[in-house]
């Protein structure tokens, strides 16, 4: 089933849609937490702070959108029963981080903070590439369904994030595109697994 078809099915059922919004909120919040966890004790740049803050705000914004399709109090936490495909959703960023860290250790021999920061750059880049695909498709289908849910503000900020990550990667390595392509390959496989899990949850709902 294609992305558009899966999202169209999700949007058509308010209860499923609410859980989907909560799931996206979880994933944005996981991203914010991972950015914060990768920070140096003192050498924290403006861009890193900005990015962490915006990801956390996206998590809050998506959570708040639930009230447009249902009772927000019915989805109080990120516990499994309030999500779609909880295992795939929880593990998506964690597995991507593991794959990228292993790649950086094996390819560049990085360790310690250098490894953490390089992983932050590559993981975030791959996620922003995905966000630049996912959110516009989602918004188009929301408009098609005349849904009150809206993610246009997230789309604008994610576009800015991607430009910022490319700039940081250019400073990180002259071969940044090679490393970024590898990170995107890891992400693509994980995204497909997540999408299949979302589809299976919806079909079984």
Say how many strands there are: 0
- Fraction of helical residues: over 70%
* Uncertain segments: none
Outline type:
globular
Mean pLDDT: 93
Rg measurement, Å: 17 Å
What's the multimeric state?
single chain
Instruction: Tell me the series of helices and strands, N- to C-terminal.
Output: HHHHHHH
Strand content: under 5%
Give a description of the structure.
The chain has helices at 3-11, 14-37, 46-65, 86-108, 112-144, 152-172, 176-204. With 205 residues, it is mainly α. It has one domain.
Reconstruct the topology from this structure:
Blueprint: H1 3-11, H2 14-37, H3 46-65, H4 86-108, H5 112-144, H6 152-172, H7 176-204
Helix pairs in contact: 1-5, 1-7, 2-3, 2-4, 3-6, 4-5, 4-7, 5-6, 5-7
State the main characteristics.
7 helices; mainly alpha; 205 residues; single chain
Give a brief outline of the structure.
With 205 residues, the chain is mainly alpha-helical. The protein has helices at residues 3-11, 14-37, 46-65, 86-108, 112-144, 152-172, 176-204. It is built from seven helices and no strands.
